[in-house]
Amino acid sequence: MTKAHSLSSPSSLYAGLDFRIADLQSEVTSFAAVSQRYLEQESREVFRDWLIGLIAFRDSKRQGVWRWAISEEKPIRTLKTIEYEPGDRRGGFSVHGELCCVWDIELKAEAKSKAKRGGQVVSLYGIASTKIKIIRSELDAGALPIAQWQFEVGDGRSPGCHFHIGIKHFGTEGSVLPVPRLPSILLTPIDAMDFLLGEIFQQTWKQEVNRDTSPMQLWSEKQKTRLSRLLKWKQEQIDQSGGSAWNYLKHQRPPAQLFLN
Asked: Strand 121-136 relative to strand 76-77: parallel, antiparallel, unpaired?
């Protein structure tokens, strides 16, 4: 189970993004059901414990920031696959993917007194990073990944676009840069897992997410709503920019309630 950590809030005036706990719970539960046959058995249990941690935090009335995390030592791990090429093509070796994440969240003060738990809101305040690794499956345990990237959500001091992707550079010591920070429209760990599965299971994952099942309907509705609101906000920033639209967007921070119903 995810362990709780007491953390200090970053020294920034930016309040962070708000999420309804009920929305996060629904997204995790429904996606876990959709994706289970692509994951190792132990990883299904990681999903369960990750969700249990969120619910325990919701009920704890904890003050301050808490770390909602899937550890790098016990990540969500996919099955092995050679389906990372499109169509009838197959890769020359098998790979599997891993996901770990860290989200620093805090119960909103006004939400703590609400009687209905579905109304409780958390603020994403501080670290918000989801790491993806792709590893050659036949290599020894502990081998370096052959690809790695991070889906990041910024805070008030973020140097890149508020929603961005960082790429791991396997350079020599002292010569690794934290750039580029590529703009992104994917932000939750579930978004990142959807992306990973779509990359390494090119055909079968596409078929899976087009199935008309109850879990798929629940998850896709949450994702569509979030993407629509995020794209609308980005368009609004571009419309009001003066010089470089990209540079203007890069320095903007979304309103806290962007994703609330």
From this structure: unpaired
